[in-house]
Amino acid sequence: MNAIPLVRANAILPLIKFLDQSGYSSERFLRQAKLPIAALENSETLIPLYNAFTFSELAAQRTGLELFGVLSAQKVQTDDFGMLSKVACQSLTLYDFLNTISDLLTATHNSGARVWLSQKDGKFWFNHQYINQANVENQQAQYYACLLYLKVIQSVTTDEWHATDLHFQANRLKGLEDIEVFSQVQVCFNQPNNAIGFTKSLLSLPLKQSVSHHLSCQPQDYEVWRFSAPATDLIGSLHQLIRAHLPDGGLHVTLAAEAAGLSSRSLQRRLAENGLSYSRLIDQVRFSLALDLLKNPSIQLIDVALELGYTEPATFTRSFRRWTGTSPSEFRRLHS
Question: May I ask the CATH class of domain 231-334?
Answer without folding.
Answer: mainly alpha
